[in-house]
Specification:
InterPro entries: Rab-GAP-TBC_dom, Rab-GAP_TBC_sf. By secondary structure, the protein is mainly α. Helix content is 66%, strand content 0%.
Length: 354
């Protein structure tokens, strides 16, 4: 198995945010807390740092770089075995043996792919980031995605394939597949599967019934939390949207199940995901990002001509706020809550000293 040589893993110069992460990765034992703090602030678009950091944040790599070759060999080997078990490799080889120039053959192959993998899955992948050549139909990245999603659905029949999963997978495939170090990018498909599996285990409760309220899905419970958060931080906007019956369930469900990847460009998504993946409370910060996103539209939403339809269109459209400003606003909202919680605890302690 090809792995990143130790001398390459240690060759990290230091400067700027991304290079701070490089410096942290140069240690014999990586300080995960410091790496999370640095990543939360955003990594530079360094195609050699982010892939390693994301692998760590999603459990593919541990804090001891000396263990990485062995750990990756096991994980990648497991994925290859799963592909073989489900017959994915055979179809992949057949498709390439036939070639892609003959339109009739391509049509026949697509028919088989639809039958095996499912029309919805294949069509969703084909619609993924059509603005990027990296995700060109029938290209390598698209084939990786189809296979990863198919194997995941087979391994997790309780979850299966749900619409929106392709949008969660795409940033992983992009980050791992564009790695400057070929020893890493050559294994982008297998590593994307491992990272995606971890991510979906965290997101799966969104698709299942909530333990807190069996009448609602996990996603619906998160949306209730968002509704309360908006009321807490902008009661006027909350009241205005409520008066028009523009409720969060009409526009924010997709935000949660795709971690906002549908709403932003790929580069913007990568910056947002640096923060979300590094969040020590894993996705708790997403509530604040969503709340800040709603508030960023305040002027347009409260325009006297903005009725139900106009407001919904605004909230379902591509955001106009910059990602940096959005994340700063989200952090400011969280800081307000932190101070409020601290003040509440202080008053409680004063009223009931130990």
């Amino acid at each position: 198995m090809e792995c990143l040589p130790e001398e390459e893993a240690a060759a990290f110069p230091v400067s700027s945010k991304g290079s701070i992460a490089r410096h942290l990765l140069d240690a014999l034992v990586i300080d995960m807390g410091a790496l999370q703090d640095t990543t939360f602030r955003g990594l530079d678009n360094d195609a050699s740092v982010r892939p390693i950091v994301w692998r760590m944040l999603l459990g593919l790599l541990g804090t001891y770089p000396s263990d990485w070759p062995h750990d990756l060999e096991l994980k990648r080997g497991s994925y290859e075995n799963l592909k073989s078990h489900y017959g994915v490799d055979d179809l992949h080889q057949w498709r390439h043996a036939l070639g892609k120039d003959d339109e009739t053959l391509v049509h026949d192959i697509e028919k088989v792919w639809h039958e095996l993998f499912g029309i919805e899955l294949c069509q969703d992948v084909a619609r993924t980031h059509v603005d990027l050549a990296f995700f060109a139909p029938h290209g390598l990245a698209s084939e990786w995605m189809v296979r990863v999603l198919f194997v995941f659905a087979k391994c997790h029949p309780d979850i299966g394939y749900c619409q929106g999963m392709h949008e969660v997978l795409a940033p992983l495939v992009y980050v791992f597949g564009t790695d400057e170090v070929k020893e890493w990018s050559n294994h982008a498909e297998a590593d994307s599967f491992g990272a995606f599996e971890t991510l979906m285990q965290l997101l799966a409760p969104l698709h299942l019934m909530s333990k807190q309220d069996p009448t609602k899905t996990g996603a619906q419970m998160q949306i209730v939390r968002l509704h309360k958060l908006l009321r807490q931080h902008d009661a006027g906007l909350w009241l205005h949207l409520n008066s028009l019956a523009v409720l969060p369930e009409y526009y924010s469900f997709r935000w949660y199940i795709t971690l906002l990847s549908h709403e932003f460009t790929m580069d913007e998504t990568l910056r947002i995901w640096d923060t979300l993946l590094a969040d020590s409370k894993r996705f708790a910060f997403l509530h604040y990002v969503c709340c800040a996103l709603i508030i960023s539209h305040r002027d347009a939403l409260t325009n006297r001509r903005a009725d139900f339809g106009v407001c919904l269109t605004i909230l379902q459209s591509k955001p106009t706020v910059s990602v940096d400003d959005l994340l700063k606003s989200a952090e400011a909202l969280r800081e307000v809550d932190r101070r409020t919680d601290l003040a509440t605890r202080s008053r409680q302690h004063q009223a009931n000293p130990a």
